[in-house]
Write a sequence for this structure.
């Protein structure tokens, strides 16, 4: 009987030690979870949101034409990949802007050359519509540039050439073979008053 009571006491002591150890393990685990949550909340999340906020601001700046910003592309995560893509896009926009400006500059020089040429110069597009009509053409044909730009060049041709022009234009656009188009030549033109 005494040995049975001693065994019960020993068992209760053992259970108490086990319960205390389990409680310590549970408390330690809860503390670890709370510390991890605090680290996540106070350190990791602000670091991520700061980088996302900066990337968002850089995107707004680039989209509004501010290409002189420095985009931080360091890192090996998804945010860094997005920053690298934005930086590449920014450089593409810079190159496009330079190309566009070069084209505008060339267009302006070409316009000045055509407008100030001593002889009449007319340029047309692939459909045969007039794109340029310089000052000498205005004097020679009696039309103002704004009256003919966008209209077919056959407007300025005598009726004997008008019918053939559209056929030659279509052939040139389809085959690239120069029959009339693409070859310099002098022809009679038809003025606004109908004279040649």
């Amino acid at each position: 009987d005494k040995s049975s009571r001693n065994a019960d006491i020993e068992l209760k002591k053992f259970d108490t030690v086990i319960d205390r150890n389990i409680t310590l393990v549970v408390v330690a685990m809860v503390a670890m979870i709370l510390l991890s949550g605090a680290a996540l909340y106070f350190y990791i999340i602000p670091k991520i949101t700061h980088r996302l906020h900066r990337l968002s601001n850089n995107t707004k700046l680039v989209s509004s034409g501010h290409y002189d910003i420095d985009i931080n592309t360091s890192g090996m995560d998804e945010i860094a990949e997005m920053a690298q893509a934005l930086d590449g896009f920014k450089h593409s926009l810079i190159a496009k802007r330079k190309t566009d400006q070069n084209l505008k500059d060339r267009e302006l020089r070409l316009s000045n050359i055509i407008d100030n040429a001593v002889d009449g110069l007319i340029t047309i597009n692939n459909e045969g519509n007039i794109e340029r009509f310089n000052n000498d053409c205005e004097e020679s044909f009696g039309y103002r540039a704004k009256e003919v730009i966008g209209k077919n060049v056959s407007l300025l041709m005598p009726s004997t050439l008008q019918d053939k022009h559209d056929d030659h234009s279509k052939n040139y656009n389809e085959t690239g073979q120069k029959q009339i188009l693409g070859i310099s030549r002098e022809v009679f033109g038809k003025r606004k008053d109908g004279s040649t």
